[in-house]
Amino acid sequence: MRILIFGGTGPAGLLLIRHALDGGHSVVVFARSPEKLPQDISANPSVTVVEGQLTDAEAISQAMAGVHAVLSALGPPPRQGITYPGNTPLAHAYGLIIDAMKKHDVKRVILLGTASIHDEHDKFSVQFKALVAGVAIFAHNAYKDVVAIGELFKAQADDVLWTIARVPILTSDEAVDYVAGYIGDGKVRTVLSRAAFAAFVLRELESNEWCRKAPLISSP
């Protein structure tokens, strides 16, 4: 399968690339700064790198050509806080990505989300309530952007098979075990390794268990 990956130069994105390559897929990496890719990835014959900005519809469309699925680890930079722009840049980028998917007849997309995206299956949880409230207060523009991403896919991507893999606090643990469920179900916790996020995404690409759903993924 030929897979287009966004956010591939970040820690979670690099793991997505490596998991995809380990699974025998060919990978197109859309990157603003290709020089951030490690040599073992950029020199891999199964990897094609397309340089471009997330505001560049033409570059996104170019990268989308011949692709079977889209995986994304895009998310607000964790340390940007109050300096994060207020014009929901990631939601806008996803709008361009959806347009390119429709143009090239690409049906499948699996993307990173957070607990800030509410799902109708969620129940009350003190821990997650505090986690989301903290983000909404101290990184409000980033919170607003993530919420807009969820609204975009649920309202405007009817002909796309999307899965939003909502994550809690991401860690650098190498464990790949995870549970998938919903907030307040007694199973999911407030931490998840980036390796487990990548493992879930590649597993979901094969199983299509959570199409048009937004599960919360966490460590067991």
Automatic annotation (TrEMBL):
Pfam families: NAD_binding_10 (PF13460)
Cited InterPro entries: NAD(P)-bd_dom, NAD(P)-bd_dom_sf, Polyketide_Oxido-like
NAD(P)-binding domain residues: 7-206
Family to which the UniProt record says this protein belongs: Belongs to the avfA family.
Listed name of the protein: NAD(P)-binding domain-containing protein
